[in-house]
Design goal:
alpha+beta, four-stranded mixed beta sheet, 2 domains, de novo design (two linked rop proteins), Glutaredoxin
Length: about 300
Amino acid sequence: MRSKRSKPWIHRNSRFIIAGIAAVGAVITAYLAIEKLTGGTVICPVEGCDKVLESPYATVFGLPLALFGFLAYAGMGTMAIAPWLINPDSQKELRSKVENWSWLLIFVGAVSMTIFSSYLMYIMAFEIKSLCIYCIGSAICSISLFILALIGRNWEDIGQLIFTAIIVGMITMVGTLAVYAPIHSTSATEPNVSGITTTSTPAKVALAEHLTKVDAKMYGAYWCSHCQDQKRLFGQEAVSKLNYIECDPKGKNPQPNLCKTAGVKAYPTWEISGQPYEGVVSLDNLAKLSGYQGATNFDNP
């Protein structure tokens, strides 16, 4: 009598490996999402990481892209361990169905995540032109999940699998381009006040005029969300009076050489009396740092 052929090692352990990789991806994206939602600063081991994480591509529907990444990895991990939650003795048929359906969902999810991650890698390399180690790590996790979804089980109908991958890939690419269409349709050469709808009180206008008078400079980039936060503190009218220097060559009236000479490493960066101050600075602190003597009731009309 012939002995039953044993499963390959990868087939026996693929779900465990998928769950582990999904956990790593979830940790990476959770960290980025938490820092973004709480206004914290991501610790970047390489220069330029902040440029990627503050780009408009890092936000989807007003929420951090990392949050959606966390949900995707959490979903992949859940599908990987789903059959383990069912008793194989008393619910054998149900467990078999869950195994088959969860594998299909894992494959669909892995294809979608790989396509999306590949697009983001392209954007990072050719549009933003900066390196984000967290983004690369997440992309590696996505590709690893795709490879494991392919080799982690014995797929009976390879043709159907390829057809599914093509359909999912097309839907993912179309959806991705649709989500990011506003970024490409919005010209980077819009005025400095673009997107600023907050109003300026007389005190805010006076402070902005004073900062310009004492040659205080605000270095930033059109895609920087923290720069937008800083501008919103001033309001539309006051922002137009600031000595703002655009550091990105694609922005309105860019002056990247000035940013390089000033040693700007983060956006926004204020230069007041020759001293740099990184990050969003409150109006009260800007007043103190610049020696402003006017009214400081910035929130009162």
